[in-house]
Each structure stands twice: as structure tokens, then as C-alpha cells.
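Repro:
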Amino acid sequence: VKLKPTIPKPNCAQRITRALKAIEPTRMMIAKSFFFVCLAASMLMIASGFSPTGRTCSVRMPSVGLEVGYIPDGMSAEQWRKLQSKEKEVKAKKKFGAFGPQSFTSRSLQSFQSDMEKGKTGHLLPVFNAKDRVKRGELKQEDIPYMQRGGNWDNSDVKGAKKVQWNSLDKRYNANQKPTRVDWMGSQSQNGGPKSGRGGNPPAPKKKTGWW
């Protein structure tokens, strides 16, 4: 009796490999076709961008002169010009750096320390929600520190408030508040320290002794 040779059956992995090899030509053909379609579409888009569309673009020039410069939204050029001129007038009335801060009037540190040592004054702390508390009647206007409300240290800016008494240091400080011109060349009289420049002779140098 002759026995027929047995052919082993392929397993699952071998079947998948054979199936992939069978569809490989088809997959490559589909990939090539997709590539050529994308290439043709991109070329058409590029060509259409350079080709004239037949539409004309007309530019209408205004009859009035063009406004040059920044103009905020919601404002006309005339309103913006008036606002700028008003701000310039306010700035012109102020002397920045002449008396320090312009929003309030303070006293000298020496006068403040003198009254604090005598128990007549103390440190001023900021008040939270000051305006709302004044409206509700919880605080008076003079209870708000003068630097916070933008007033004077002696409460002279609050009508009907009790004024803080000035001492001799306050009067002297107020008398010296007139700004003076900076003496760049040293031609004016100087107070304190040796004179130098054209206003006086410099101090004589000390005589050196030894080798140093």
C-alpha cells in the first residue's frame, strides 16, 4: 500500500502573510493614484492663484484730507484734539518735582517726628473702602489720611474739619518751599560745607607725611 504524502496546513500567521502579499499590488496602485490626485489638485490651486479672475477692484479716495496719527475708537478727531489740549493745560499748571508729589500737601519729616515724640500725632494707615464708608456715615472725610484723599496734612482741604496746629518747624518749612534755580556753575552763595568752583576757593589739601 502506497501512502500519500501529507501537506501541512498553514497556520494563521502564514495565512495573513499570504493575504497581504496578494493585495500588495493593489495597495501600491491605490497609493500612487492618491498621490497623483493630490499633486494635480495642488497644481490647479497654484495656477488659479496667479490667473486673473476678471473682477476689478476700485479704490475710492476720500474728498477730505487724511488724518495722520492715533485717534481712539469712539472719538472723532476734533474730540481727541480737545481732550489733548485740556490735558496739556492741566500739566502746564503743575510744577513736577518742585514740591514733590502734587496730589497732596505734606509736612516736613522733622516736624512730624517732633509732634510724634510729643504725642500729638501718629502714623497714618490707609483706610479700605473709604468712599463707601464715608457715604454710609461710618467715617468722616478728615478721618481718611490726607495722602489717600489727596488733601493737606492739616485738614485745611476739608470744610468744617478740625485743623491741625502748625508748629515752628512747619512755618519754617513752608517759608522755604519756594523752588530755587539749580546752581550748576557754583556762582550763588552756598550754605554749609566748603565752597568750590567760581563761588569760592576749594579747601587746601592735607600735607602728606611719610611715603603714603
